Each structure stands twice: as C-alpha cells, then as structure tokens.
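Backbone-to-sequence.
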C-alpha cells in the first residue's frame, strides 16, 4: 500500500486572499485532495476543503464579470446601439424621401431628435445598473474572502490532526508531530555552536528517537494514534529554552503556532 503523508508545510504558503488556482496547486502537491469514505473527521474536513475551494473559484468568476463596468460609462458604444442609429437614420431617410423628398435632411435632423431622449434614458439605466454592480461586487468579494478563510481553516484542521485513512491502495496519514520534530531537528543542527550546552545535544537525541519511533509506527498496518505523537508541550518548552533563532524561510512556523495553540487549549480545558 502506498503511503501518502500530508505536508503541513503548505500552511506557511496558503493565503485566504490568494487565487484559487494557486491554493489548489499547493494543496494538491501537499496531498490534501484525498477522498476518504465515511462520515466524521477527517472525511468531513476533506469535504469542507473541496467545498470552500469550489466556492472561491465560483466567487472569483463572478468578480471577474462584475469588474467590467457597463460600456456606456467608459466611453464605449455597444454594437447594438450603432446599428440602432443606422436603422433610425435609414427609416427617417426613407420616410422623409417618400413624403417630402428631403430624406437626407430628415435623417440628419431627425436622428438626434429621436435618439437623444432614448440615449438619456439609457444612460440613466446604465448608472442604476452600475450602482447595483458595485454593490454586488462588494457582496461577492466579502463572500470570496470568507470562503478563502474557510479554505485555510479546513487545511489547518487537517494538517494539525493525527490520523490514518485508507483510500483505495493509498494510505493517507497526517502526522503533524513528526513534521514538527523534523523542523526542530533541522533548527538545532543548523544552529549548533561549538560551545552548545548539554541540553542542546540531549534534545537532539530525544527528538531523533521520537522521529524514529513515529516513522517505525507508520510502517505498522494500523499504528495507534499515541505512537504517532510526542509530548509536544514539554519538548517545545525545552526547545524554546535554547533560544534558537527562527528559520529564515518561515517553514514550519504556522504549524508550530497551531500546535502550541491546540496544546494550550487542551491544557486550559482540563
């Protein structure tokens, strides 16, 4: 069975205001388009993710249409209006020629007289419609922002849950603690100085052991959730005590903040 890990690093690149096409590519490459069967999490979160992404797509298409103002208000004459002028002039020329023999004069004088009131009514209608367009644009834009936030929230829920689901011949796993451990090992090794305190190397050994334990558990047919997690609060406190500079790329920052918030929330709820 193929093992597919969700990449929580996508949280550092997702943005609620980013185009749907950009977020779709990021989520696809990070493995967030699985479709597990059954009700309840994480299946509902996968569905919420796809629904929010589709809603963002739809809102962006509406916005693209609403961003185009009515042609009359930007100095563009619609083709139908041009043909209307020609048709009016032709009718007046025919009527004038048949009645007075001055068809050209009727066309030149009568066309503005006939069409000016209609043009003014049309311009008033265009102004009313443009105001409605602007109001609709604000409504759709607000909906697009809300759906973008819902998309990111669904991705955050999936990326910070520990779970294993089988989808056909693929086993989709989310192991945020493993990703967090790998990020901290990276930071500790990058910033290890010759005079590093013993606590530095001790934490490296503990994190490496936790990483190996989780990776071994992932090879089991049905690894229990506790084997895929670590004592997050304690390890994070030990890492913070070493005052390691943050990663310049920002990779893993969002995951760390979300896991810390979740741990704090569970601790306060006890």
């Amino acid at each position: 069975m193929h093992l597919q890990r969700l990449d929580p690093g996508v949280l550092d690149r997702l943005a609620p205001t980013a185009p749907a096409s950009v977020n779709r590519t990021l989520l696809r490459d990070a493995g967030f388009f699985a479709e597990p069967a059954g009700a309840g999490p994480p299946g509902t979160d996968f569905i919420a993710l796809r629904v929010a992404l589709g809603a963002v797509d739809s809102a962006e298409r509406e916005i693209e249409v609403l961003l185009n103002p009515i042609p009359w208000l930007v100095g563009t004459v619609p083709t139908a209006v041009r043909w209307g002028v020609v048709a009016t002039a032709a009718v007046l020329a025919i009527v004038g020629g048949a009645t007075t023999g001055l068809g050209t004069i009727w066309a030149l004088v009568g066309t503005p007289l006939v069409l000016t009131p209609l043009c003014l009514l049309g311009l008033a209608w265009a102004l009313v419609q443009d105001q409605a367009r602007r109001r609709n644009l604000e409504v759709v834009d607000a909906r697009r922002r809300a759906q973008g936030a819902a998309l990111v929230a669904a991705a955050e829920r999936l990326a910070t849950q520990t779970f294993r689901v089988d989808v056909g011949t693929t086993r989709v796993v989310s192991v945020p603690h493993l990703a967090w451990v790998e990020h901290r090992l990276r930071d500790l090794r990058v910033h290890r100085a010759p005079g590093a305190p013993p606590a530095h190397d001790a934490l490296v050994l503990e994190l490496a052991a936790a990483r190996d334990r989780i990776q071994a558990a992932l090879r089991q047919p049905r690894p229990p959730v506790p084997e895929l997690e670590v004592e997050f609060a304690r390890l994070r406190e030990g890492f913070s005590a070493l005052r390691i500079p943050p990663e310049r790329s920002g990779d893993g920052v969002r995951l760390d903040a979300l896991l810390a918030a979740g741990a704090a929330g569970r601790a306060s709820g006890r």
